[in-house]
Amino acid sequence: MRILLTGASGQVGWELARSLMPLGEVIVPARERCDLARPETLAALVAETGPTAIVNAAAYTAVDRAESEEALARRINAEAVAELAAAARRAGALLVHYSTDYVFDGSKPAAYVEDDPVAPLNAYGRSKLAGEQAIAASGCDHLIFRTTWVYAARGANFLLTMLRLGAERDVLRVVADQFGAPTWARNIADASALALAQAVRERAAGHFRSGLFHLAGGGETSWHGFAEEIFAQVRARRPDLALRVGAVEAIPSTAYPTPAARPLNSRLDQRAVAERFGIVMPCWRAALGRCLDELGGGRR
Ligand SMILES: NC(=O)C1=CN([C@@H]2O[C@H](COP(=O)(O)OP(=O)(O)OC[C@H]3O[C@@H](n4cnc5c(N)ncnc54)[C@H](OP(=O)(O)O)[C@@H]3O)[C@@H](O)[C@H]2O)C=CC1
Ligand SMILES: Cc1cn([C@H]2C[C@H](O)[C@@H](COP(=O)(O)OP(=O)(O)O[C@H]3O[C@@H](C)C(=O)[C@@H](O)[C@H]3O)O2)c(=O)[nH]c1=O
Ligand SMILES: [Mg+2]
User: What is the pLDDT of residue 298?
Assistant: First the structure.
């Protein structure tokens, strides 16, 4: 099969380029041919490529910047997604797409299930929700995975921010009242490949059903808990990575003002993805350990 992959330089896309390899030919278009900020160019890209599946790992992910760039976030996360979905439908391709816990307002006292009411608190969340809705409305065959708190050994993420700040400062202050699960991009990519392979078999057999699934690291913690675990694991298994930080102070979100509001509860119930695909994501602590093992030496 032929898979058109967008966002291959991002955290999830980088891992997808590897995880999708055993499934077929992975086509990674250059940015000049695939710019989601120019949605009108995407129909031709898909028509020329003729993919079996489109895996869209490209997105506008700068949560705070989106508050002042909502139109651009919307173009990339919603209007371009609508074009990809329409093109997928015309080409008879399956669309695999990613969304976020930030579609929820975080007020639910338990983990979110897929059909819980959405109510994004910020511009990024609104743009991602519009992307989900555009895919559902398009009628293309699709799988949407809502994930959370993504990190990887490369890219812009909380793990690498903590390693950088932890090497520079004695004390860090990290919010302890936002709960969720850190998710290693590698695990998302491997799970996506398993699901895509099953979906392709289902389509060939004529019983494929489109759907949206929650997919995040196993277990739960706060950003503060994540930071503490990062430093504990670095001390235990990566003494070569210099750390200066002593204490990680637990603070409330109100003590860490940001342009974008963030949900206090980002926990995603994952029973649906287990039932449909037999996927059980690894515990976030174990995944963090594997990722740390792969980090290059020195500071990043
Ligand atoms: N990061 C997170 O914590 C979470 C992410 N998600 C979702 O998961 C998916 C993957 O996220 P993640 O891997 O973290 O994202 P990254 O920010 O790491 O990567 C984004 C990718 O999109 C590309 N991109 C950005 N703008 C455009 C554009 N105009 N045209 C083409 N490509 C573009 C980037 O290319 P370049 O490098 O050239 O800019 C990069 O390859 C996204 O849908 C995101 O919304 C969901 C929950 C949490
Ligand atoms: C750097 C830093 C952050 N924080 C807080 C801010 C925030 O509440 C939390 C995480 O910070 P980040 O900027 O990494 O978070 P953020 O960019 O909001 O991460 C989100 O990205 C998008 C793309 C998603 O889809 C979400 O699932 C989520 O992963 O930690 C501290 O409390 N102290 C610190 O020193
Ligand atoms: Mg961020």
Answer: 44
Name the CA dihedral angle for 38, 74, 157, 272, rounded to a multiple of 10 degrees: -110
Comparing 46-60, 264-278, 284-298, the range with the smallest average pLDDT is 284-298
Measured from the Cα of 173, ligand 2's closest atom is: 33
Q: Tell me: the pLDDT tens digits for 33-63? A: 999 999 999 999 999 999 999 999 999 999 9
**pLDDT at residue number 98:** 98
Quote the CA–CA distance of 29 and 156 in Å, as a whole number.
22
Task: Give nearest CA residue, ligand 1 atom 12.
Answer: 11
Dist. CA 47 → ligand 2 center (Å):
37
Q: Are 215 and 191 in contact (CB under 8 A)?
A: yes
Nearest CA to ligand 2 atom 28: 149
Mapping DSSP to helix (H, G, I), strand (E, B) and coil, where does residue 217 land? Answer: coil
Distance of CA 219 to the CA centre of its chain: 17
289 vs 53: CA distance, rounded Å: 32
Among 174, 220, 245, 258, residue to substitute to test ligand 2 (most atoms within 8 Å of Cβ): 174
List active site positions.
Answer: 124
- In the CATH scheme, what is the code of domain 2-156+183-220+266-282? 3.40.50.720
Over the chain, what is the mean pLDDT?
96
Domain spans of the chain, in order of start:
2-156+183-220+266-282
Judged by its nearest atom, the ligand closest to the C-alpha of residue 159 is 2
pTM for the complete prediction? Answer: 0.96
